[in-house]
Amino acid sequence: MYDDKIAEFLRENYGISEEILGLAEKAETALKDRFEEADRITEYNQYKVLHAMQKNRLSEAHFVGTTGYGYNDLGRDTLEQIYADVFHAEAGLVRPQVISGTHALTVALAGNLRPGDEIFSPCGLPYDTLQGVIGIRPERGCLAEYGITYSQRELLTDGSFDYEGIREALKNKKIRLVEIQRSRGYAWRESFTVEKIGELIAFIKEIRPDVICMVDNCYGEFVETIEPTDVGADLCVGSLIKNPGGGLAPIGGYIVGREEYVDNAAYRLTSPGMGKEVGATLGVTPSFIQGLFMAPQVVNGSLKGAMFAAKLFEELGMEVLPSSNVKRGDIVQSIMMKSPEKVIAFCEGIQKGAPVDSYVTPEPWDMPGYDCDVIMAAGAFVQGASIELSADAPIKPPYIVYMQGGLSWHHAKIGIMTGLQTMKDKGLI
Protein backbone atom coordinates (compact mmCIF):
# COMPACT_ATOMS: atom_id res chain seq x y z
CA MET A 1 0.00 0.00 0.00
CA TYR A 2 2.86 2.38 0.85
CA ASP A 3 5.93 2.10 -1.34
CA ASP A 4 9.32 2.90 0.16
CA LYS A 5 9.38 6.45 -1.18
CA ILE A 6 5.98 7.37 0.33
CA ALA A 7 6.78 5.70 3.66
CA GLU A 8 10.12 7.49 3.87
CA PHE A 9 8.49 10.84 3.08
CA LEU A 10 5.84 10.35 5.77
CA ARG A 11 8.43 9.35 8.36
CA GLU A 12 10.81 12.20 7.61
CA ASN A 13 8.32 15.02 7.08
CA TYR A 14 5.40 14.10 9.32
CA GLY A 15 7.00 11.85 11.91
CA ILE A 16 4.60 8.99 11.14
CA SER A 17 5.85 5.90 12.97
CA GLU A 18 6.12 2.38 11.58
CA GLU A 19 3.29 1.37 13.90
CA ILE A 20 0.89 3.97 12.48
CA LEU A 21 1.96 3.17 8.92
CA GLY A 22 1.27 -0.50 9.57
CA LEU A 23 -2.16 0.21 11.05
CA ALA A 24 -3.00 2.47 8.10
CA GLU A 25 -1.97 -0.12 5.53
CA LYS A 26 -4.01 -2.81 7.28
CA ALA A 27 -7.07 -0.53 7.45
CA GLU A 28 -6.89 0.48 3.81
CA THR A 29 -6.59 -3.13 2.67
CA ALA A 30 -9.60 -4.16 4.76
CA LEU A 31 -11.70 -1.35 3.25
CA LYS A 32 -11.17 -2.28 -0.39
CA ASP A 33 -14.78 -3.40 -1.00
CA ARG A 34 -16.22 -0.40 0.85
CA PHE A 35 -14.10 1.96 -1.20
CA GLU A 36 -15.27 0.33 -4.43
CA GLU A 37 -18.90 0.81 -3.37
CA ALA A 38 -18.19 4.49 -2.64
CA ASP A 39 -16.73 4.82 -6.14
CA ARG A 40 -19.88 3.36 -7.69
CA ILE A 41 -22.05 5.88 -5.82
CA THR A 42 -19.77 8.70 -6.90
CA GLU A 43 -19.89 7.64 -10.54
CA TYR A 44 -23.70 7.72 -10.56
CA ASN A 45 -23.83 11.10 -8.82
CA GLN A 46 -21.25 12.58 -11.18
CA TYR A 47 -23.38 11.61 -14.17
CA LYS A 48 -26.50 12.99 -12.43
CA VAL A 49 -24.88 16.40 -11.89
CA LEU A 50 -23.43 16.48 -15.41
CA HIS A 51 -26.80 15.66 -16.96
CA ALA A 52 -28.54 18.44 -14.99
CA MET A 53 -26.02 20.96 -16.31
CA GLN A 54 -26.41 19.73 -19.88
CA LYS A 55 -30.21 19.67 -19.62
CA ASN A 56 -30.20 23.34 -18.58
CA ARG A 57 -27.83 24.30 -21.41
CA LEU A 58 -25.18 25.69 -19.08
CA SER A 59 -22.89 28.08 -20.95
CA GLU A 60 -20.12 30.59 -20.32
CA ALA A 61 -22.72 33.35 -20.38
CA HIS A 62 -24.02 32.01 -17.05
CA PHE A 63 -20.71 32.78 -15.33
CA VAL A 64 -21.24 36.55 -15.42
CA GLY A 65 -22.05 37.98 -11.99
CA THR A 66 -24.46 40.76 -11.11
CA THR A 67 -24.41 43.66 -8.66
CA GLY A 68 -26.98 45.81 -6.91
CA TYR A 69 -30.45 44.30 -7.04
CA GLY A 70 -29.34 41.38 -9.19
CA TYR A 71 -32.28 41.52 -11.59
CA ASN A 72 -32.13 39.16 -14.58
CA ASP A 73 -29.23 37.11 -13.22
CA LEU A 74 -29.25 34.27 -15.75
CA GLY A 75 -26.44 32.36 -14.04
CA ARG A 76 -28.18 32.42 -10.67
CA ASP A 77 -31.51 31.32 -12.12
CA THR A 78 -29.90 28.54 -14.16
CA LEU A 79 -27.92 27.27 -11.18
CA GLU A 80 -31.10 27.12 -9.11
CA GLN A 81 -32.80 25.05 -11.80
CA ILE A 82 -29.75 22.76 -11.96
CA TYR A 83 -30.02 22.21 -8.20
CA ALA A 84 -33.74 21.50 -8.54
CA ASP A 85 -33.02 18.90 -11.23
CA VAL A 86 -30.17 17.25 -9.30
CA PHE A 87 -32.49 16.89 -6.30
CA HIS A 88 -35.54 16.02 -8.44
CA ALA A 89 -37.39 18.93 -6.86
CA GLU A 90 -39.81 21.55 -8.19
CA ALA A 91 -37.63 24.55 -7.33
CA GLY A 92 -34.38 25.66 -5.78
CA LEU A 93 -32.95 28.65 -3.92
CA VAL A 94 -29.12 28.81 -4.06
CA ARG A 95 -27.66 32.06 -2.77
CA PRO A 96 -24.44 33.63 -1.49
CA GLN A 97 -26.61 35.70 0.86
CA VAL A 98 -27.15 32.50 2.90
CA ILE A 99 -24.15 32.33 5.22
CA SER A 100 -24.42 28.82 6.68
CA GLY A 101 -26.53 25.71 7.02
CA THR A 102 -28.10 27.14 10.17
CA HIS A 103 -29.01 30.30 8.27
CA ALA A 104 -30.56 28.27 5.43
CA LEU A 105 -32.64 26.35 7.95
CA THR A 106 -33.66 29.60 9.64
CA VAL A 107 -34.83 31.06 6.32
CA ALA A 108 -36.81 27.92 5.48
CA LEU A 109 -38.44 27.79 8.91
CA ALA A 110 -39.24 31.51 9.18
CA GLY A 111 -40.57 31.62 5.62
CA ASN A 112 -42.99 28.74 6.10
CA LEU A 113 -44.19 29.16 9.69
CA ARG A 114 -46.55 31.69 11.22
CA PRO A 115 -47.47 32.60 14.81
CA GLY A 116 -49.34 29.70 16.41
CA ASP A 117 -47.56 27.07 14.29
CA GLU A 118 -45.40 24.39 15.89
CA ILE A 119 -42.17 22.70 14.81
CA PHE A 120 -41.89 19.01 15.64
CA SER A 121 -38.67 17.01 15.74
CA PRO A 122 -39.00 13.20 15.61
CA CYS A 123 -35.30 12.70 16.36
CA GLY A 124 -34.72 14.54 19.61
CA LEU A 125 -32.91 17.83 19.98
CA PRO A 126 -31.63 19.44 16.77
CA TYR A 127 -28.05 20.66 16.37
CA ASP A 128 -26.86 23.21 18.95
CA THR A 129 -27.03 26.33 16.75
CA LEU A 130 -30.57 25.52 15.59
CA GLN A 131 -31.69 25.26 19.22
CA GLY A 132 -31.05 28.99 19.54
CA VAL A 133 -32.94 29.70 16.31
CA ILE A 134 -36.03 27.82 17.46
CA GLY A 135 -35.88 29.16 21.01
CA ILE A 136 -35.23 25.92 22.88
CA ARG A 137 -32.27 27.89 24.17
CA PRO A 138 -33.60 31.46 24.28
CA GLU A 139 -31.80 33.84 21.91
CA ARG A 140 -32.75 37.32 20.73
CA GLY A 141 -34.92 37.09 17.61
CA CYS A 142 -35.63 33.36 17.96
CA LEU A 143 -38.80 31.87 16.48
CA ALA A 144 -40.31 31.45 19.94
CA GLU A 145 -40.48 35.26 20.21
CA TYR A 146 -42.84 35.18 17.23
CA GLY A 147 -45.22 32.68 18.80
CA ILE A 148 -43.83 29.60 17.04
CA THR A 149 -43.61 26.65 19.43
CA TYR A 150 -41.59 23.44 19.45
CA SER A 151 -42.01 19.82 20.51
CA GLN A 152 -40.05 16.62 20.02
CA ARG A 153 -39.89 12.87 20.45
CA GLU A 154 -36.68 11.19 21.46
CA LEU A 155 -35.32 8.31 19.43
CA LEU A 156 -35.67 4.84 20.86
CA THR A 157 -32.67 3.30 22.65
CA ASP A 158 -31.63 1.49 19.46
CA GLY A 159 -31.54 4.79 17.55
CA SER A 160 -34.73 4.18 15.57
CA PHE A 161 -37.77 6.45 15.33
CA ASP A 162 -40.47 6.17 18.00
CA TYR A 163 -43.31 5.69 15.53
CA GLU A 164 -46.04 5.29 18.13
CA GLY A 165 -44.85 8.39 19.95
CA ILE A 166 -44.77 10.29 16.67
CA ARG A 167 -48.32 9.14 15.85
CA GLU A 168 -49.50 10.46 19.19
CA ALA A 169 -47.62 13.75 18.79
CA LEU A 170 -49.14 14.42 15.36
CA LYS A 171 -52.59 14.64 16.97
CA ASN A 172 -51.50 18.16 17.89
CA LYS A 173 -52.97 20.21 15.05
CA LYS A 174 -50.61 23.11 15.76
CA ILE A 175 -47.78 21.09 14.22
CA ARG A 176 -47.11 22.64 10.82
CA LEU A 177 -43.58 21.46 10.08
CA VAL A 178 -41.55 18.36 10.93
CA GLU A 179 -37.79 18.98 11.10
CA ILE A 180 -35.72 15.88 10.36
CA GLN A 181 -31.99 16.14 11.01
CA ARG A 182 -30.16 13.66 8.79
CA SER A 183 -26.78 13.98 10.48
CA ARG A 184 -26.08 13.38 14.16
CA GLY A 185 -25.00 16.84 15.32
CA TYR A 186 -23.26 16.36 18.66
CA ALA A 187 -25.28 13.25 19.52
CA TRP A 188 -24.01 9.68 19.79
CA ARG A 189 -26.26 8.13 17.18
CA GLU A 190 -26.17 6.88 13.62
CA SER A 191 -27.04 9.34 10.89
CA PHE A 192 -30.17 8.49 8.94
CA THR A 193 -30.00 6.97 5.48
CA VAL A 194 -32.33 8.35 2.84
CA GLU A 195 -34.27 5.09 2.96
CA LYS A 196 -34.99 5.55 6.68
CA ILE A 197 -35.96 9.17 6.13
CA GLY A 198 -38.35 8.09 3.35
CA GLU A 199 -40.02 5.56 5.64
CA LEU A 200 -40.52 8.24 8.28
CA ILE A 201 -41.93 10.77 5.80
CA ALA A 202 -44.37 8.20 4.37
CA PHE A 203 -45.56 7.43 7.92
CA ILE A 204 -46.04 11.13 8.73
CA LYS A 205 -47.83 11.93 5.47
CA GLU A 206 -50.27 9.07 5.93
CA ILE A 207 -51.34 10.62 9.24
CA ARG A 208 -50.92 14.33 8.42
CA PRO A 209 -50.58 15.02 4.68
CA ASP A 210 -50.80 18.76 5.43
CA VAL A 211 -47.56 18.82 7.41
CA ILE A 212 -44.37 20.13 5.78
CA CYS A 213 -41.52 17.60 6.04
CA MET A 214 -38.19 19.45 6.02
CA VAL A 215 -34.85 17.63 6.06
CA ASP A 216 -31.65 19.20 7.36
CA ASN A 217 -29.43 17.58 4.72
CA CYS A 218 -26.10 18.98 5.95
CA TYR A 219 -23.21 16.51 5.45
CA GLY A 220 -25.46 14.10 3.55
CA GLU A 221 -25.45 15.28 -0.08
CA PHE A 222 -24.04 12.76 -2.60
CA VAL A 223 -23.31 10.14 0.07
CA GLU A 224 -26.02 8.02 -1.57
CA THR A 225 -27.47 7.94 -5.08
CA ILE A 226 -30.75 9.47 -3.85
CA GLU A 227 -31.58 12.54 -1.75
CA PRO A 228 -34.45 13.20 0.69
CA THR A 229 -36.48 14.95 -2.02
CA ASP A 230 -36.50 11.63 -3.89
CA VAL A 231 -38.42 10.04 -1.00
CA GLY A 232 -41.04 12.66 -0.25
CA ALA A 233 -39.29 15.54 1.56
CA ASP A 234 -41.10 18.84 0.92
CA LEU A 235 -37.95 20.82 1.67
CA CYS A 236 -34.28 19.85 1.72
CA VAL A 237 -31.78 22.32 3.15
CA GLY A 238 -27.99 22.53 3.32
CA SER A 239 -24.79 24.56 3.21
CA LEU A 240 -22.54 25.18 0.21
CA ILE A 241 -19.41 25.12 2.37
CA LYS A 242 -20.25 21.51 3.07
CA ASN A 243 -20.79 18.75 0.51
CA PRO A 244 -22.50 20.41 -2.48
CA GLY A 245 -20.04 23.30 -2.73
CA GLY A 246 -17.26 20.86 -3.56
CA GLY A 247 -14.71 22.90 -1.63
CA LEU A 248 -14.92 25.72 -4.17
CA ALA A 249 -17.98 27.66 -2.99
CA PRO A 250 -16.72 30.46 -0.71
CA ILE A 251 -20.09 30.92 1.04
CA GLY A 252 -23.75 30.06 0.50
CA GLY A 253 -26.62 27.72 1.18
CA TYR A 254 -29.42 26.01 -0.69
CA ILE A 255 -33.09 25.18 -0.23
CA VAL A 256 -34.80 22.80 -2.67
CA GLY A 257 -38.24 21.25 -2.70
CA ARG A 258 -41.84 22.14 -3.47
CA GLU A 259 -42.08 25.44 -5.29
CA GLU A 260 -44.55 27.00 -2.84
CA TYR A 261 -42.29 26.38 0.13
CA VAL A 262 -39.09 27.42 -1.66
CA ASP A 263 -40.80 30.67 -2.72
CA ASN A 264 -41.89 31.30 0.87
CA ALA A 265 -38.27 30.93 1.97
CA ALA A 266 -37.14 33.34 -0.77
CA TYR A 267 -39.60 35.99 0.44
CA ARG A 268 -38.05 35.69 3.89
CA LEU A 269 -34.46 35.79 2.58
CA THR A 270 -35.01 38.96 0.50
CA SER A 271 -38.34 40.68 1.10
CA PRO A 272 -42.06 40.17 0.52
CA GLY A 273 -42.92 40.98 -3.08
CA MET A 274 -39.36 40.40 -4.34
CA GLY A 275 -38.42 36.85 -3.41
CA LYS A 276 -36.19 35.07 -5.93
CA GLU A 277 -36.21 37.97 -8.41
CA VAL A 278 -33.43 39.82 -6.58
CA GLY A 279 -30.09 38.95 -5.04
CA ALA A 280 -26.82 39.82 -6.76
CA THR A 281 -24.27 37.03 -7.15
CA LEU A 282 -21.19 39.31 -7.13
CA GLY A 283 -19.08 36.98 -9.25
CA VAL A 284 -19.35 33.78 -7.19
CA THR A 285 -21.54 31.86 -9.65
CA PRO A 286 -18.62 30.08 -11.39
CA SER A 287 -17.39 28.79 -8.01
CA PHE A 288 -20.89 27.57 -7.14
CA ILE A 289 -21.30 25.80 -10.48
CA GLN A 290 -17.84 24.24 -10.61
CA GLY A 291 -18.09 23.31 -6.94
CA LEU A 292 -21.32 21.42 -7.60
CA PHE A 293 -19.67 19.67 -10.53
CA MET A 294 -16.76 18.57 -8.32
CA ALA A 295 -18.91 17.74 -5.30
CA PRO A 296 -19.42 14.00 -5.96
CA GLN A 297 -15.65 13.49 -6.20
CA VAL A 298 -14.92 15.57 -3.10
CA VAL A 299 -17.59 13.73 -1.09
CA ASN A 300 -15.98 10.47 -2.23
CA GLY A 301 -12.68 11.52 -0.62
CA SER A 302 -14.48 12.53 2.56
CA LEU A 303 -16.33 9.22 2.75
CA LYS A 304 -13.15 7.21 2.33
CA GLY A 305 -11.49 9.29 5.02
CA ALA A 306 -14.37 8.65 7.42
CA MET A 307 -14.24 4.90 6.78
CA PHE A 308 -10.46 4.94 7.22
CA ALA A 309 -10.68 6.75 10.56
CA ALA A 310 -13.36 4.36 11.76
CA LYS A 311 -11.26 1.31 10.88
CA LEU A 312 -8.09 2.68 12.50
CA PHE A 313 -9.79 3.45 15.80
CA GLU A 314 -11.67 0.15 15.73
CA GLU A 315 -8.32 -1.61 15.47
CA LEU A 316 -7.23 0.31 18.57
CA GLY A 317 -10.28 -0.97 20.47
CA MET A 318 -12.14 2.36 20.60
CA GLU A 319 -15.86 2.95 20.01
CA VAL A 320 -16.83 4.62 16.75
CA LEU A 321 -20.08 5.57 15.00
CA PRO A 322 -20.69 4.52 12.34
CA SER A 323 -18.55 1.41 12.17
CA SER A 324 -16.26 1.00 9.19
CA ASN A 325 -18.43 -1.58 7.42
CA VAL A 326 -21.96 -0.13 7.40
CA LYS A 327 -23.96 1.96 4.94
CA ARG A 328 -23.45 5.63 5.74
CA GLY A 329 -25.91 8.50 5.84
CA ASP A 330 -23.33 11.30 5.92
CA ILE A 331 -19.60 12.09 5.89
CA VAL A 332 -19.25 12.52 9.67
CA GLN A 333 -17.23 10.08 11.78
CA SER A 334 -17.78 10.04 15.54
CA ILE A 335 -15.03 8.69 17.80
CA MET A 336 -15.57 8.10 21.52
CA MET A 337 -12.40 9.50 23.11
CA LYS A 338 -13.57 9.41 26.76
CA SER A 339 -11.12 12.13 27.85
CA PRO A 340 -10.56 15.80 26.97
CA GLU A 341 -6.84 15.13 26.51
CA LYS A 342 -7.48 12.64 23.70
CA VAL A 343 -9.98 14.97 22.02
CA ILE A 344 -7.57 17.89 22.08
CA ALA A 345 -4.58 15.81 20.92
CA PHE A 346 -6.50 14.39 17.95
CA CYS A 347 -7.69 17.86 16.92
CA GLU A 348 -4.12 19.17 17.22
CA GLY A 349 -3.00 16.40 14.86
CA ILE A 350 -5.75 17.12 12.34
CA GLN A 351 -4.64 20.76 12.34
CA LYS A 352 -1.02 19.71 11.75
CA GLY A 353 -2.16 17.92 8.60
CA ALA A 354 -3.96 20.96 7.17
CA PRO A 355 -2.76 22.94 4.13
CA VAL A 356 -3.69 26.23 5.85
CA ASP A 357 -2.60 27.24 9.37
CA SER A 358 -0.91 23.89 9.97
CA TYR A 359 1.38 25.59 12.50
CA VAL A 360 -1.56 26.71 14.66
CA THR A 361 -2.57 24.80 17.81
CA PRO A 362 -6.38 24.71 18.24
CA GLU A 363 -7.76 25.29 21.71
CA PRO A 364 -11.25 24.94 23.21
CA TRP A 365 -13.18 28.21 23.41
CA ASP A 366 -16.61 29.65 24.17
CA MET A 367 -17.92 29.59 20.63
CA PRO A 368 -21.19 31.50 19.86
CA GLY A 369 -24.23 29.23 19.58
CA TYR A 370 -22.94 26.44 21.86
CA ASP A 371 -23.56 25.70 25.54
CA CYS A 372 -19.98 24.67 26.40
CA ASP A 373 -16.42 25.19 25.20
CA VAL A 374 -15.83 23.69 21.75
CA ILE A 375 -12.58 22.82 20.00
CA MET A 376 -12.44 23.05 16.24
CA ALA A 377 -9.55 22.01 14.02
CA ALA A 378 -9.87 23.20 10.43
CA GLY A 379 -7.00 24.51 8.36
CA ALA A 380 -9.32 25.34 5.49
CA PHE A 381 -9.18 27.44 2.33
CA VAL A 382 -12.73 28.61 3.17
CA GLN A 383 -13.32 29.60 6.78
CA GLY A 384 -15.49 27.01 8.54
CA ALA A 385 -15.78 24.78 5.48
CA SER A 386 -16.40 21.34 6.95
CA ILE A 387 -16.20 19.65 3.55
CA GLU A 388 -12.50 20.34 4.06
CA LEU A 389 -10.82 18.06 6.60
CA SER A 390 -11.88 19.16 10.06
CA ALA A 391 -12.56 17.83 13.54
CA ASP A 392 -14.53 19.37 16.35
CA ALA A 393 -15.90 18.43 19.73
CA PRO A 394 -17.75 19.88 22.70
CA ILE A 395 -15.48 19.65 25.72
CA LYS A 396 -17.85 17.72 27.95
CA PRO A 397 -18.45 14.04 28.79
CA PRO A 398 -18.38 11.55 27.15
CA TYR A 399 -15.77 13.45 25.09
CA ILE A 400 -16.70 12.53 21.54
CA VAL A 401 -14.82 13.99 18.58
CA TYR A 402 -16.57 14.49 15.25
CA MET A 403 -14.38 14.34 12.16
CA GLN A 404 -15.50 15.13 8.63
CA GLY A 405 -14.37 16.29 5.24
CA GLY A 406 -11.31 16.07 3.05
CA LEU A 407 -11.08 17.65 -0.39
CA SER A 408 -9.27 14.50 -1.50
CA TRP A 409 -8.91 11.01 -0.09
CA HIS A 410 -5.14 11.32 0.22
CA HIS A 411 -5.37 14.53 2.22
CA ALA A 412 -7.96 12.96 4.52
CA LYS A 413 -5.62 10.01 5.01
CA ILE A 414 -2.52 12.00 6.00
CA GLY A 415 -4.61 14.25 8.27
CA ILE A 416 -6.03 11.27 10.13
CA MET A 417 -2.59 9.71 10.47
CA THR A 418 -1.15 12.92 11.94
CA GLY A 419 -4.08 13.01 14.36
CA LEU A 420 -3.34 9.47 15.47
CA GLN A 421 0.40 10.11 15.63
CA THR A 422 -0.11 13.16 17.86
CA MET A 423 -2.14 11.05 20.28
CA LYS A 424 0.61 8.40 20.24
CA ASP A 425 3.37 10.97 20.85
CA LYS A 426 1.48 12.23 23.91
CA GLY A 427 1.14 8.68 25.26
CA LEU A 428 -2.65 8.64 24.83
CA ILE A 429 -2.88 5.46 22.73
Number of strands: 12
Beta-sheet strand percentage? Answer: 5-15%
Structural class: alpha/beta
* Whole-angstrom Rg: 21 Å
Which residue ranges are poorly predicted, with pLDDT under 50 across at least 5 consecutive positions?
Answer: none
- The helix/strand series, from N terminus to C terminus, equals HHHHEHEHEHEHEEEHHEEHEEEH
Q: In DSSP terms, counting alpha (H) and pi (I) runs of 4 or more, how many helices?
A: 12
* Major beta sheet summary: 7 strands, mixed
From the N-terminal CA to the C-terminal CA, the straight-line distance is 24 Å
Fraction of residues in helices? 40-55%
Q: Mean of the pLDDT scores? A: 95
User: Widest sheet: strand order?
Assistant: 1-7-6-5-4-2-3
The shape is globular
Structural account:
The protein is of the alpha/beta class. The chain has helices at residues 4-14, 18-30, 32-55, 74-86, 101-112, 128-134, 163-169, 194-207, 259-269, 285-315, 340-352, 409-425; strands spanning 91-95, 118-121, 149-152, 175-181, 212-216, 235-239, 253-257, 320-321, 333-336, 374-377, 390-394, 400-404. The strands form two sheets. It has a seven-stranded mixed sheet, sandwiched between helices. A five-stranded antiparallel sheet has the order 8-9-12-11-10, covered by helices on one side. β11 (390-394) and β12 form a beta hairpin. The two termini are 24 Å apart. The mean pLDDT is 95.
